[in-house]
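Before drawing any conclusions, I needed to go through one protein's amino acid sequence and its backbone structure tokens, quoted below without any editing.
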Amino acid sequence: MIISKTPLRMSFAGGATDFKDYYQRKYGAVVSSAIDKYIYVSLNRKFDDSVRVSYSKTEEVSDINKLEHNLAREALRLTGVDKGVDINYASDMLPAREGTGLGASSSLLVGILNVLHAYKGETPSSEQLAGEACRIEIETLKHPIGKQDQYAAAFGNFNYIKFNPDESVLVEPLSADEEIPQELRKNLLLFYTGLSSSSEAVLPEQKEKIEKNVAVLDEMAKLADELNVSLRKKDTSSFGEILHQNWLLKKSLASKISNSKIDEYYEAARGAGAAGGKILGSGGGGFLLVFAKPENHENIRRALSGLKETKFNFEKEGSKIVYAD
């Protein structure tokens, strides 16, 4: 048995500038962090040559091309493993492919790739895992997504990630010491809205409107750059305001990123003392992140009493093999 452990992520600024249609003009940039919520993928060698993939249902096929689970199918195809394996996965959060806004699909894919490489006796770099996951999701499956989730899952840590026009990706850790992550963590609250976040409902429109929204995306990339600079100076004073400005810009990118219920929750948090916040991921639901001074946290919890608060910490490590026998 081989088991991989891959973190989910939260993005703070610059999300949406990681789309190829945008970053090829100049560059894209995000500030994000892996968190201590994980997707676990296990692989067992089978006695026969069939391939079995178990999730909300179980598929067993003699030909991997017949797999309906597109991420597993393409990972098997890319790594050249085409028989005799049994793959299962589980998540600390909602089902791994259900919309959370925490980059679950990319974390799942990175985790599947990691166990398949380990099965072949290979030790892929974080760069390789992220690159292969991007190739599968963006090029092969044509999902209307960017690159940030795959890199966050593979590399872990608290990072400034820059997406260059030549397709290179620069990952610069922001947490060389614990001071900044610990300071931020004391001010952040995470709530599950109960609304499903569907990237399929949001991202096609967002991608289609990139040309129209270039000026907005420029401002979002600029916010990521500003946040990068301030955090490197160990200055967290602008964090909440940057989250707020980023959310206002992001909402304008597509019609389903926010809705009346999300706006109600966000304004309630702001009214109770939050300096800023955002819906994580593509939007439409999932998790609401808010930044506020600790003395305002109880007021915010009361204002959002109908939502489930989720405790979390930042995670330094990216996808890794935690068991191999």
